Every structure is written in structure tokens, then in C-alpha cells.
Amino acid sequence: MKIVKTVAEVREQVRAWRAEGLTVGLVPTMGYLHEGHASLIDASVRDNDRTVVSDFVNPMQFGPTEDLETYPRDLDHDAALVEAHGGDLIFNPEPGEMYHEGFSSFVDMTVLTQELCGLSRPVHFRGVCTVVSKLFNIVTPDRAYFGKKDAQQLAVIKHMVDDLNMPLEIIGCPIIREDDGLAKSSRNTYLSAEERQAALILSKSIKLGMELVKKGETDSSKITGEMTKLIESEPLAKIDYVKLVDLATMQQIPALDRPALCAIAVYIGKTRLIDNFFTEDV
Ligand code: PAF
């Protein structure tokens, strides 16, 4: 397993693999890898001859008041995890390698990004689409792997790939949870012991929402209302959103009459966490 810092080194390695007729999978990450990322690497190693993991905290997708400076980083830990899971190359560029002086081209999307996280994080998806497009251009993977925990991101990237005729397949992988239900996230590390306990309210409300759907409830406001009530019972929790949206448009829907996503974002203290379920998975 190799770690490289430059676009030229990635290109050289991928060119050599291509010359041998090998397929390439890409797992884009911001590092501080956990078992959620490991499951994406496992899927890529299963499907492709070689796997590249990008490890880059992308400044462009953070708003001015967000956690860019404090976002956790640990390349040694990441390298050990990638190696243990059979990844072949880590691309760990400095910001200047990705965004040179005078950088001024962006990939933006006018649909799918207006709701959910796009509302509370207005610059986020432009930053994600731009960096992911760059990574696709640099690595030229056959397949790229994204977690369903960031369900809106997954939908946005699939849409971008379709809109821009990008020649690769996007694979969405299931949410990986701690034993007590909390969805794995690099940001869980910000939580104090008390907040870690309080954060369970997210997965409990997801479970409640799924139970209601399983029982046949189709009224969106009843489902999100019950989930909201439960989250509000936790004093350390502050809701950003609890919404049921059309999976294809990310627009809110009054009734569950089509494939939908139930997505929540909740602050536990200062830490913003997300979770969700797809109605088709219930
Ligand atoms: O999901 C993430 O970790 C990031 O948004 C991604 C896709 C690596 C782009 O920086």
C-alpha cells in the first residue's frame, strides 16, 4: 500500500494499472477512517482489481463557521486501516495540490441541493461536487463508493455523474452503526461522554420512523412529528431538520406514495450529526 501526495503520482500509478488491464475503484474520504469507510473499501476491493482511497479534508465544502480547522486527522491510523482492508493507494494531497493559486472553476447543482443539508450548509454541495469531480478526473475510476449515511450527497453525486456523462458507476453502501445504534461518523469523536449517550436519540428516532412506516403509516407529518417529539425529549439535542423527501428530487412530500428518504440532522451540543432511512429498505 502506497501513500502519494500529488496528482501526477496518482495518474502514473493508475496508468500502470490500466496498462495491465486492471480495474480501479475509488473511495473518496476526508480521512479519520472508521468502520463505515472500511465497509466502502471492502466493497471496492471486492468489485475492482485495485482500490484508491482519497484522504483529503476538502476546505471548499466547509462554511465559514464550520469545523474545518478542528476536523480530526490521523494519516497513520488511516494508512493502517486501508492496508488492513486491502486498499492499494492513498491519495493524500495538500490543499494547494487540489486548489492551486487562481483556482476558479466549480461544479454546482441547482436541483437536489436546495433541501436538507443544502439549506443549512449553503456552500457544502458545490464544494463536494467540485472536489469529487476533480477526484474522478484524477483517478478515472471504474466505480466510486459512497455511504448511504450521507444520503443527499449520494443522490447529488449520482445526479452529477448522469448530468455530466461521467464514465463510472456510483455505488451506495449501507450505514454502519455502533453496537448501540449510533451511525459511525468521524464527527462522533467531538462528543463528550454525556453527549455520546444523548446522541443515541438520532438512531432511536430513525428506528421509530421505520416502525411507523412498517406499520403502514403513510402520512409524512405524522411520522416526522412522532420522531420530532422523541428527539425533543433529549435535553442536549437541537433539531436542524426531520424530513421526509422524494428520493428523486429531495423535495418534501406530504404522503409516502413513492420511494422516499427520511433524513434527520440534529445538533448534540455543538456537534451536528445526521442519520436517515430509505423507505424502500424498511
Ligand atoms: O463524504 C465525505 O467524506 C466527503 O464529502 C467527500 C465525498 C470525501 C468529498 O470531500
Protein architecture, described:
- This protein has ten helices and nine strands.
- With 282 residues, the chain is an alpha/beta fold.
- The strands form two sheets. The chain has a six-stranded parallel β-sheet with strand order 1-4-3-2-5-6, with helices on both faces. Strands 7-8-9 form a three-stranded antiparallel β-sheet.
- α6 (124-139) crosses α7 and α9 runs antiparallel to α10.
- The longest helix is centred in the middle third of the chain and has 16 residues, at 124-139.
- The termini are far apart.
- The mean pLDDT is 98.
- The structure holds pantoate.
Gist of the model:
The chain has 282 residues and is an alpha/beta fold. The chain is 38% helix and 20% strand. The protein has two domains: 2-173, 3-Layer(aba) Sandwich (Rossmann fold); 186-277, Pantoate--beta-alanine Ligase, Chain: A,domain 2.
Order of H and E elements: EHEHEHEHHHEHEHHHEEE
Distance between the termini: 38 Å
| Biggest sheet strand line-up | 1-4-3-2-5-6
> Into which percentage range does the β-strand content fall?
15-25%
Q: Pairing-aware structural class of the strands and helices?
A: alpha/beta
Number of strands: 9
Query: Approximately how much helix is present in the residues?
Result: 25-40%
CATH class of the largest domain: Alpha Beta
Main β sheet profile: 6 strands, parallel
Please tally the helical runs, counting DSSP H or I stretches of 4 or more residues. Answer: 10
